[in-house]
Amino acid sequence: MKLTKISLSFLFGCMATLPIKAQIVQEAVCENDSIEIGLPAFIQNESIQWMSSNNATNFSDLAGDTLTTLNVAPASPTYFVARITGDNCDPYFSDTVFVNISLAPSVADAGADITDTSNTTTLGANTPTVGTGTWSILPGSGTNGAFSSVNDPNAVFTGDPNETYLLAWTISNPPCPPTVDTVVVNLGVSSGPPLPSISCLNNTLFVHPTDNAGPTPWGCPGSGTAQSTSDIDGQLNTNLIMTNCPNPNTTAAAICANLNAFGFSDWYLPAFDELNCLRNEAATIGGFETGGYWSSTEFAGILGSNAKQRNFPSGVSGASSKSNSHRIRCVRRL
Questions:
Q1: Of all helices (H) and strands (E), which one includes residue 277?
Q2: How many domains are there within the chain?
């Protein structure tokens, strides 16, 4: 809930009734938000009474609201004013505040993720009942995309082939906070089985829909040869394996590093924690066999001649000699 603060000035005069032509200060707040209206600190030994009206003409006293500040959360557009009674000219009045209420924007729904063989696709966001929707391309994805209309929930999006875009559908109705949803769009992808995607470690991870190799040695013999010890960054690990191992193209990681599938060539062998994401979403991704799968994470220290693997579907994991054989499932991330 947001609190908006307003400080008022005064309209002075010896008037028995509320001045209809007092200056009106306008303020918009979001539904359920509060507003604090304050009088100057120099008011002392004077009587204050806050009043409200729905038409700026017929004002009624607000019972109990007699302090220099008024805290309210109006449910509908309302006018507020303070009547001050003192020793000089009674009464005098503050400026009138008109508080307009804005409804919270509709909850954004960008639609299902899209994989399209062409370089154009039709988006499927929801039409807002409150607020205005706007499409945008988020940083870190393709940059050359364009929308037929940024405010059309069913806009045609055009981008580069073999590119992945992360698009945001934002519904705004100021001053309320906007609502946002995202959709992943893969363009120019070769026809074939759909490319699953999951959320993993604050990234969108794309998973090859089938195993990329059966039981295969991890390779790169020796202790700590690859230096690929990250549990969370399989892309870094794969690059280190391909750089540091004496015969990199004989490694399990090379199967992913050399893979060109679905129009993409940035595949890698998942790190240990990424492999755990795959196991957690195995039913959604599909195609996994019972048994061990390699990660790209090499053990450090005295266990450096081993790499980390995880069994599907049990989740049992641990150190496995790099000469042992486990299955390979490649991933890529946005």
A1: helix 272-280
A2: 3
Statement to judge: residues 215 and 313 lie in one domain: yes
Contacts of 176 (CB under 8 A, 6+ apart): 30, 31, 102, 103, 104, 105, 131
- Least Cα distance to 109 among 124, 95, 130 occurs for 124
Which pair of tokens denotes residue 199?
């959320």
- Alpha-carbon distance 59 to 22, whole Å? 13
What was the pLDDT predicted at 40?
73
Whether the CB-CB separation of 35 and 3 falls below 8 Å is answered with yes
CB atoms within 10 A of CB 300: 12
| 84 occurs within a structural domain | yes
From 73, 102, 131, the end of a domain falls on 102
Q: How far apart are CA 35 and CA 300, in angstroms?
A: 58
Give the side-chain half-sphere CA count within 13 A for 126: 15
Q: Examine the domain organization and report whether 326 and 207 are in the same domain.
A: yes
User: Strand 176-187 and strand 114-116: pairing?
Assistant: parallel
Query: HEC states along 12-38?
Result: CCCCCCCCCCCCEEEEEEECCCEEEEE
Clarify whether residues 75 and 203 are in a common domain. no
Q: Per residue in 217-245, pLDDT tens?
A: 999 999 888 999 999 999 999 999 999 99
C-alpha distances (whole Å) from 313 to each of 141, 248, 275, 310 are: 32, 29, 12, 9
Q: Is residue 109 assigned to a domain?
A: no
Q: What is the pTM of this model?
A: 0.56
The amino acid that residue 41 corresponds to is: A
State whether 127 and 172 are in the same domain: yes
Mark residue 129 as left, alpha or beta (left: phi above 0; alpha: psi -120 to 50; beta: remaining).
alpha
Residues 6+ apart with CB under 8 A from 61: 49, 50, 51
CB 193 within 8 A of CB 200: no
Q: In angstroms, how far apart are the furthest CA atoms of the chain?
A: 97
Residue 147: domain span: 114-187
Tell me what pLDDT residue 44 has.
Answer: 62
